[in-house]
Each structure stands twice: as structure tokens, then as C-alpha cells.
Design brief:
The complex is a heterodimer. Chain A is α/β, with parallel strands linked by helices. Chain A is built from seven helices and eleven strands. Classes of the chains: A alpha/beta, B alpha+beta.
Chain lengths: 254, 434
């Protein structure tokens, strides 16, 4: 199979870090905070690498949009088995405004440029929880999409995707080229072994600018403020069911 | 001091020096987040060396440190308590160490190893020790003693046979100590008698780590007793060799998951081709390897202290007594800060010794200092951490008491503290001679 797969990997604040809101309420504290690859992106890379190991696809390209530090995330993807990386250099104000719409425009442009047959993304990022990039990318390219994938079966020119939906599991067949977004149960990502980390040093990372791809990064959204969720109030214990109903009525809940 | 390691550290980051160095220090330097401007990183110091804090890692060192941390927390941490209680290292941990490439860190890629630097081994050992010092010591012995001996002294045949195995599935044991010779290693009594083209080894060894799982044993035996220690030779003995028996595991206070057994050699026949290095040079190899192994143990003790500390501090922040966190009492704060300083000092000694070794500069005195200090700091830290945790620190439900038990061996094995101090004194004496 000569197919190329593009996998998006996003650099996000590590899931184990306690998030703090900046005092000026413009966002969260990111300086000096541990960052790592979005867990769903790890699952996406793992799926792509497995397809390559099964010899169903030829090349895995890892892409990340962001400042210089995004290259660390790409490097991790290379250590997991991706063949090469593309760093789309976005920094400063542009980076603050970078959202699913801009990223999907970039991914669509790259998909055309690199002659890609399959794009695998994580279903959502754990920092913004947007769950939009995959869907938007498919729409921009006019490609079919298999989102919330918990299983992907590669067939000659199409994919059988089992999706996790509210009611249970849905299996669809989509023609390639297509976009797939990975859900939690798609696979368990491998650890980057030390020898693979060393091998990753030799793999190439190309840097491109959004302007090179002809992408306009302007955003229609403006973040007005970011605040912490309100403190959880203590609960109250009641003695009887009657008390419970009375309390619920008094607080206007029923 | 710092400058020279910087050059060597960069040298060992190979082609990643130029494009990555500035970015690495801007983005990743641990403990050096502020004050590192573009100008200061690019400014060459005296002799053209760049000045960077000791805790600056090149990108692959950072990536490997993170990889080990993740693996240790996910795959080893849940099993630590069980392994300690049963005095048995779980197979999944052993497989995992090999799979992840932790057992062949400095072995060349050509032989199936990772092909990384000595400093990387130190980081790996430190990260493993934060979770389980028993696992760390297994990794340490394999990398700093066994692999190094084969790499430095092995013939091409020996290397081609053993290095790939050591990197993928074979554990090695280093057999020097005997019942009657610990610190006085050179007085070992195990003999090797020459017959035609083979040797017959008779004797016994004691306190041999990894021996329950080892596939190959590097045995120090004397092939020429009349020459004293100059007869000591290093023999490669495979596990299944007739006459080699592995005794019952010691029931230890700490590092219980690491197997420590006595060995008996009863007319063990070993071909001449199984001599590692040269006849009668074993004592030199042993000393040489133990100098590097010392830094590995320092890293283990350092990780132990840090892991223990990391587990204890959150407790002090949560525990409320007399209306405030116990962390907020000045008495506690001073103790905590004191211990944190000691750990930092031990870290710098260890990292510096490792960088010196990588740079090919003299490092023996510094390695002794690192091992001695790190083991003392580990003892202090674990003792204090139990006190800070109060009653719960004393129970097996929390990991602290295990660290306390594990740390004691640090000042004993791979050269007791007294030996380290004596060695340091010899160097100091020499330095100050007219």
C-alpha cells in the first residue's frame, strides 16, 4: 500500500498538572508548566504506526501547529514510530488565536500538499475539549469522516469504522481518502522505548509557515475571560425522605 | 568544572548541539527557567565553553528521562509493594526493562542496544529508583558493571555473543565478594586452575545481586595465587555451566525484590576463550568498573531520597494539626528545607561526576564523593520523612518505610562509606604533595 497518513499531535498541558488561572483572567498559566502530547493524539499516532507495521500504509507524518516547543511533541511522535514530522510554526498572537478552524485549514492544506489518503486525529484536545478539528478538516476537504473511532478496519479503498456514540456502538463504512478521530478505546499507546528515542533523532522535521500553505489564521472568536469554576458547596445531610423533599422544594429544585 | 562538562555534555548530544542547544535551555532547563537569555546561552565562556547549569539535559536525555518516569509510574509502581513483600521481582517488570531498552543503554545500536550516553544511564537509574530502588539496582548493575565490562574488555566474539543478549533478554551478575573478602576484595580465595586450554574454578561467592535471574556471571577468580591480586582474572561463566550452583536468596532488610544469593563453584570448567580481557588483570577491571558503578549507586540513592521526599511532602501539606498544616510550622519548614538542600547537593555531585566521566576527565574522587554523600543523604531523608509522616510513616500502607529500609545498603555495597572516604583521602593527599 502506498498510502500516506497524516496524524495531528497537539502540545497541551500535561493531564496530571493542576491547572491555575492567570490573575488577569486572560487564560491559564502555561509558563514553566509541564506540557506533553494530548492523550488522544497519542492514541492516533499509535493507530497510524500499527497500520504501518501491518504494512497497510507506507508513511506516517506527524504534524503539530504551534511555537518552537511543539517540535518536542513531534519528536515524541517520531519516537513512537512516525516517519517524519512537519512543524507548522505559529507563535505569539497567532498562537493564542489558534483554534480548530485555523488548524483544520492548515491540515487540509497539508493533506493536499503531501498527497495524503488518511488523516487520523485525536477526538478532542484535553485543554479546550473542542472536538471540532477532525470534523472541520473533513468538511474543508470534502472527505468522509469516522469520528469517535474505537476500531478501524482497513479495507482496499475504504475503512470500516466502529464509532462510540451515545446509544452504543455504530459501525460505518467510509471511502478513502477520509478523516478518522480516535476515541479512548481505539488502542493503548506504546511507550517510546529508549532505542526509538535515539532513532527519532535521525528523523526529519520540516518547518513551514501557515502563509506558505496559503492559510489565513484570523479568528472570529475573542476570549473575553477565563475563570475558575465556582467552589463546590458543602452538601447537607437530612434525616428523612420528607426532609429531603422539603429541602428540595425550598431551594426551588422541584 | 561546569564548563568542561558542558562541552562534553554537548559533545554527547552529537548532532543535536547546534540547532537544539539554545532552544533546549530556553524551554527545558530544569531549575534554570529564569535568567537564561539568548545572549547568555550563546556567549562563549573561557576556552570557548558554554556555561549551563548542571541540570541541563540535551533533548534526548530529557525525552528518555520522561519515558522512564512514565514507565516506572505506570508499570512498576503498582507492583512495588507486592515485590517487596514476596521478595521477588515480577517477570513483567523484567520484560518491561528489556523492552524499553533500559538494560542496554550504552550498548551500541550495532549490537542491539540503545547507543545512548553514560549520563542517560544515570538519569534512568535515578528515575527508576524514585519508584523502586530494587529495580534501579538491577538496571544499574547491568549497565554500569556488566555491559561496561563487556564493552571495554571483550573480544569481538564475546561482544557479538553477549552484548545483543544483554540488551534484549539476558541479565548479568558481577561476582567479586566472598564470605571472607568484602572490602578487602583482593584477598578473594576463589581459584582458577589452568589445564591445557581451559580453567577449573573452585570456590564460592557471596552477596551476588541479580543472581537468581542472571544468565551470565562475571566471576573474579585468582588464576595465579602466588602473584597475589595480580592473578585475579575475570571469567565469563554461563548460568548452565556444570558445577555452578546458586544458593538460597538472602532474606534482607531492604532491596528485597533484588535477589542476593551465594554462589558455589565446584570444579566449574571454563574455556580459555571465556576470559574477559587479560589474564591477571581482573583486579584492574574490577576497580575500573566499580569507579563508574559508584556513580550509578549514587544515582540510585539520589532517586531513592527524591522519591521518598516526593511522597512525604504532600502529606505535610494536607495534614492539619493545631489549626494549620504541619508544613507551616517553622520547625518542620527548616527540617524540610535542610533535607531538600542535601538532596540537591547530592544531585549535583552525582551529575557532575557523571559528566566528568563522560568527558574522559579524572572522576574517581568525585565519584567517591557522590556515592558516599548520596547514601548518607538517602539515610537522612528517609529517616526524616518517616518522622514527618508520623504514625502513618511507620506503616506499610505508605511507601515511606520501604524507602527507609532500602536506603541502608547504600552506605555498604559497592564500596562502604569508609572505603570511599579512604579513597578520597588518598587523592587529597596526592593533590597536596609538593
Amino acid at each position: 500500500m502506498s498510502a500516506r497518513v497524516l496524524v495531528g499531535v497537539k502540545r497541551v498541558i500535561d493531564y496530571a498538572v493542576k491547572i491555575r488561572v492567570k490573575p488577569d483572567k486572560t487564560g491559564v498559566v502555561t509558563d514553566g508548566v509541564k506540557h506533553s502530547m494530548n492523550p488522544f493524539c497519542e492514541i492516533a499516532i499509535e493507530e497510524a504506526v500499527r497500520l504501518k507495521e501491518k504494512k497497510l500504509i507506507k508513511e506516517v507524518i506527524a504534524v503539530s501547529c504551534g511555537p518552537q516547543q511543539s517540535q518536542e511533541t513531534i519528536r515524541t511522535a517520531l519516537a513512537m514510530g512516525a516517519d517524519r514530522g512537519i512543524h507548522v510554526d505559529v507563535s505569539g498572537k497567532d498562537y493564542e488565536n489558534l483554534g480548530p478552524l485555523q488548524v483544520s485549514k492548515i491540515l487540509a492544506a497539508l493533506a493536499k500538499k503531501e498527497d495524503v489518503r488518511l488523516i487520523i486525529l485525536g477526538k478532542q484536545a484535553i485543554d479546550d475539549d473542542c472536538n471540532q478539528t477532525g470534523q472541520m478538516t473533513a468538511a474543508l476537504l470534502d472527505w468522509p469522516q469516522g469520528t469517535f473511532a474505537s476500531q478501524v478496519d482497513f479495507q482496499e479503498d475504504s475503512l470500516k469504522v466502529e464509532r462510540e456514540i451515545d446509544g452504543g456502538l455504530e459501525t460505518i463504512k467510509i471511502k478513502m481518502p477520509a478523516v478518522v478521530t480516535a476515541d479512548l478505546r481505539l488502542n493503548e499507546p506504546r511507550y517510546a522505548t529508549l532505542p526509538n528515542i535515539m532513532k527519532a533523532k535521525k528523523k526529519k522535521i520540516d518547518t513551514v509557515k501557515p502563509s506558505d500553505l496559503g492559510v489565513d489564521l484570523s479568528s472570529q472568536l475573542e476570549v473575553l475571560s477565563v475563570e475558575e469554576p465556582s467552589q463546590r458547596q458543602a452538601g447537607v445531610k437530612v434525616e428523612t425522605v420528607e426532609d429531603l423533599i422539603k429541602k428540595l422544594r425550598d431551594s426551588g429544585r422541584i | 568544572m561546569a564548563a568542561s562538562w558542558a562541552r562534553s555534555g554537548l559533545k554527547f548530544c552529537r548532532n543535536f548541539v547546534k540547532p537544539w542547544s539554545v532552544e533546549v535551555w530556553k524551554g527545558q532547563a530544569v531549575g534554570a527557567r529564569r535568567g537564561i537569555t539568548q545572549a547568555s546561552t550563546e556567549r562563549a565562556g573561557v576556552n570557548g565553553f558554554l556555561h549551563a547549569p548542571l541540570q541541563t539535559f540535551c533533548e534526548e536525555e530529557s525525552m528518555m528521562k520522561d519515558a522512564v518516569k512514565k514507565f516506572a509510574q505506570e508499570r512498576i509502581a503498582p507492583l512495588v509493594s507486592k515485590m517487596d513483600e514476596q521478595s521477588h521481582m515480577d517477570e513483567s517488570v523484567l520484560h518491561g526493562l528489556f523492552e524499553q531498552g533500559f538494560m542496554g543503554i550504552e550498548i551500541d545500536e550495532h549490537y542491539g542496544g540503545t547507543g545512548a550516553s553514560f549520563f542517560t544511564s544515570i538519569l534512568v537509574i535515578e528515575e527508576l529508583a524514585k519508584v523502586d530502588p530494587s529495580v534501579a539496582v538491577l538496571c544499574d548493575i547491568q549497565n554500569t558493571l556488566i555491559n561496561t565490562l563487556f564493552r571495554k574488555c571483550g573480544t569481538e566474539e564475546q561482544k557479538s555473543y553477549y552484548l545483543p543478549r544483554l540488551a534484549t533478554n539476558m541479565i548479568g551478575s558481577f561476582c567479586l565478594s566472598e564470605a571472607e573478602s568484602g572490602s578487602d576484595a583482593f584477598s578473594l580465595k576463589t581459584k582458577a586452575e589452568k589445564h591445557k586450554d581451559y580453567y577449573i574454578i573452585n570456590g564460592s561467592k557471596m552477596w551476588i545481586s541479580n543472581s537468581e535471574q542472571a544468565g551470565v556471571f562475571l566471576v573474579m577468580a585468582n588464576a595465579n595465587a602466588s602473584a597475589g591480586y595480580r592473578g585475579i582474572t575475570c571469567f565469563i561463566v554461563d548460568r548452565d555451566t556444570e558445577g555452578l550452583s546458586i544458593g538460597k536468596k538472602e532474606n534482607k532488610l531492604g532491596l528485597r525484590a533484588s535477589s542476593t544469593c551465594p554462589l558455589t563453584f565446584d570444579n566449574v570448567k571454563v574455556p580459555e576463550s571465556n576470559i574477559l580481557g587479560e589474564l591477571g588483570q581482573g583486579y584492574k577491571y574490577a576497580i575500573g568498573m566499580l569507579n563508574g558503578g559508584r556513580i550509578g549507586i549514587a544515582a540510585q540513592m539520589l532517586g531513592l531520597a527524591q522519591g521518598c521526599f516526593d511522597n512525604a511532602i504532600p502529606y505535610t501539606q494536607q495534614r492539619i494539626q493545631f489549626g494549620k498544616r504541619i508544613f507551616d510550622f517553622q520547625g518542620m519548614q527548616h527540617q524540610i528545607a535542610h533535607v531538600a538542600t542535601q538532596i540537591e547537593a547530592a544531585r549535583l555531585l552525582t551529575y557532575n561526576a557523571a559528566r566528568l566521566s563522560e568527558a574522559g576527565r579524572p572522576f574517581i574522587k568525585e565519584a567517591c564523593m557522590a556515592k558516599y554523600y548520596a547514601s548518607e543523604v538517602a539515610t537522612l531523608t528517609t529517616s526524616k520523612c518517616i518522622e514527618w509522616m508520623g504514625g502513618v510513616g511507620f506503616t506499610k500502607d505508605y511507601p515511606i518505610e520501604k524507602f527507609y529500609r532500602d536506603c541502608k545498603i547504600g552506605s555498604i555495597y559497592e564500596g562502604t562509606s569508609n572505603i570511599q572516604l579512604t579513597t578520597m583521602a588518598k587523592f587529597i593527599d596526592r593533590e597536596y604533595q609538593a
